[in-house]
UniProtKB/TrEMBL annotation:
This protein's encoding gene: slc37a1
Keyword flag Transport: yes
Lineage, highest ranks first: Eukaryota, Metazoa, Chordata, Craniata, Vertebrata
SUPFAM superfamilies: MFS general substrate transporter
A GO molecular function held by the record: glucose 6-phosphate:phosphate antiporter activity
Superkingdom field: Eukaryota
Places the protein is found: Membrane
GO biological process, one term: phosphate ion transmembrane transport
Transmembrane segments annotated in the record for this chain: 19-37, 96-118, 124-148, 193-213, 219-240, 327-348, 368-385, 392-409, 421-446, 458-480, 492-512
Keywords from the named record: Membrane, Sugar transport, Transmembrane, Transmembrane helix, Transport
Main location: membrane
Name the UniProt record assigns to this protein: Glucose-6-phosphate exchanger SLC37A1
GO cellular component, one term: endoplasmic reticulum membrane
Record's bilayer topology term: Multi-pass membrane protein
UniProt key word Thylakoid: no
Length: 531
């Protein structure tokens, strides 16, 4: 008999539960990658909506002067009118572009508070599917503005507001889903790896939008819109919200001809729970063998077949979520941390275009290095916080290092491409590290806090409160950048450094508590078995 190939031996070494965890991890990763992929095009297209018209006029003047003709060439005649996309062809274009960012992010921030509460009360799979399909629709609508030659600012503002509202369905849903499947053990590492979807989505969005930005910027929106809509369809067919949903499906598919004995015991929270008793025999189905132990054992299928003597714990209220220790502090910290991150997200390509004098495509490609650094920073933040058992301290140290690096980036961009690349990577890691840790591992920790006494219906609301508060900063940052950049980019960087220090100050109380508490310790492997 031929030996089993090593690859097959590796595949069969994992049980079915582990394969479904891997599926959930990969699927939610791709789902939220498509969300960020669809947000990125606006930052790439900004430099195309308002080109450097003065440069075009100078080129036209030089061309006409060299021929000795006093008549304006077609280029010089049309340059001031055609080089930019109305209504962004005026001197206040930065304010208009900032208003578009603000409309999306403000709608996102307001909608996020409501989205988490709704998400606790609706099936996550359906809620997320509808959100992704409608987000794809509005992203495509923005691109159709180019196809149908629409120059009305109100149209673009409306599309941004609508898209901001429907995109709030994404984050609470995917964090709740990943939190259901993975326990607290090594949560920082797992979610640090998983949260790289933010940077991966930004990178892919930059590359896709940059491919068409100079020839047909409408496709820079339409293609990402189609991608997120397609991922919504995949979500509908494959997303498993909770491991118990999978057990329920297999319990329902048991053959009615096979006799399965039931036993009853008193369960947790006063519930009477039914158990299925399995014995190792030849009539046991292959599906059951993969999911359940082979020895004679009583296996709980709660909450699949449950006779309740009292109602399930209700979804937590908004005020109840705010009373969880640490929620307010981390929410306010994220407000300023996300302000910095999203200012880079929406304005970095345009800054590189102006500072390094690169075209839109090259600036978009270079800006992806900030997100590459963000991937590394998010993973490092997760690993370090798992090792030390101190989430707030990890965030505080990275915020402390980020402020001088931001100042260095504003200065060093004048010294060539090499130093700029290095600073983009370093700043990306230090800026996105705390942001990634707070929105993932910290949110999941607080959503399953011991003060909740086992009530699992709080994760979506807590996640929405933290990310919604952060989104207020995300809305304010790009708007302030648009206003301050008129007086020079240095003012924008001073604003970012101030926000970074404020985020650090808001965490100081939690940092002191962590450093003085004897309970702060690395998360043990025992906790990994929680789920």
């Amino acid at each position: 008999m031929a030996p089993v190939p090593p690859g097959i031996r590796l595949l069969v070494s994992f049980n079915r539960d582990q394969w479904y965890r891997a599926l959930t991890f990969a699927l939610t990763f791709l789902l939220y990658t498509s969300f960020h992929l669809s947000r990125k095009p606006i930052s790439i297209v900004k430099s195309e909506l308002h080109k450097n018209c003065s440069s075009a006029s100078e080129l036209a003047t030089v061309g006409s002067g060299s021929t000795g003709s006093q008549e304006p060439t077609p280029l010089s005649f049309h340059s001031n009118m055609d080089c930019s996309w109305k209504p962004f062809d005026k001197s206040n274009y930065k304010q208009l572009l900032g208003a578009m960012d603000y409309s999306f992010l403000c709608a996102y921030a307001v909608g996020m508070y409501v989205s988490g509460i709704i998400g606790e009360r609706l099936p996550i799979r359906l809620y997320l599917t509808v959100g992704m399909l409608t987000s794809g629709l509005f992203t495509c609508l923005f691109g159709l503005g180019y196809i149908y030659n629409i120059h009305n600012l109100s149209f673009y503002i409306f599309v941004q507001v609508a898209n901001g509202l429907v995109q709030t369905t994404g984050w609470p849903s995917v964090v709740t889903c990943i939190g259901n499947w993975f326990g607290k053990g090594r949560r920082g590492l797992i979610m640090g790896l998983w949260n790289s979807h933010t940077s991966v989505g930004n990178i892919l969005g930059s590359l896709i939008a940059g491919y068409w930005v100079s020839s047909n910027w409408g496709l820079s929106f339409i293609v990402p819109g189609l991608i997120i809509a397609a991922m919504g369809v995949i979500c509908f067919f494959f997303l498993i919200e909770h491991p118990n949903d999978l057990k329920s499906a297999y319990a329902q598919n048991l053959s009615p001809t096979k006799s399965v004995p039931f036993k009853s015991w008193n369960g947790a929270n006063g519930h009477s729970e039914l158990y299925l008793q399995y014995r190792d025999n030849k009539n046991q189905s292959s599906d059951t063998e993969l999911l359940l132990p082979r020895d004679s054992v009583c296996v709980p299928v709660q909450p699949i077949v449950v006779v309740k003597s009292e109602s399930e714990p209700s979804a937590i209220s908004f005020m109840g979520a705010l009373r969880i220790p640490g929620v307010i502090e981390f929410s306010l910290c994220l407000l300023f941390a996300k302000l910095v991150s999203y200012t880079f997200l929406f304005w970095l390509p345009l800054y590189i275009t102006k500072a390094a004098h690169l075209d839109a495509k090259k600036a978009g490609d270079l800006s992806t290095l900030f997100d590459v650094g963000g991937i590394v920073g998010g993973i490092l933040a997760g690993v370090i916080s798992d090792k030390l058992g101190k989430r707030a301290t990890t965030c505080a140290v990275m915020l402390l290092l980020a402020a001088p690096m931001l100042y260095g980036f504003s200065m060093i961009s004048e010294f060539g491409l090499g130093p700029t690349i290095v600073m983009l990577l370093v700043c990306g890691g230090l800026v996105n590290g705390p942001y990634a840790l707070i929105t993932t591992a910290v949110s999941a920790d607080l959503g399953t806090h011991k003060s909740l006494k086992g009530n699992a219906r709080a994760l979506s609301t807590v996640t929405a409160i933290i990310d919604g508060t952060g989104s207020v900063g995300a809305a304010v940052g790009p708007l302030l950048a648009g206003l301050l950049s008129v007086g020079g980019w240095n003012k924008v960087f001073y604003m970012l450094m101030t926000a970074d220090f404020l985020a650090l100050l808001l965490l100081l109380q939690l940092v002191v508590k962590e450093l003085t508490s004897s309970k702060s310790r690395p998360i043990s492997a025992v906790e990994l078995k929680e789920h």
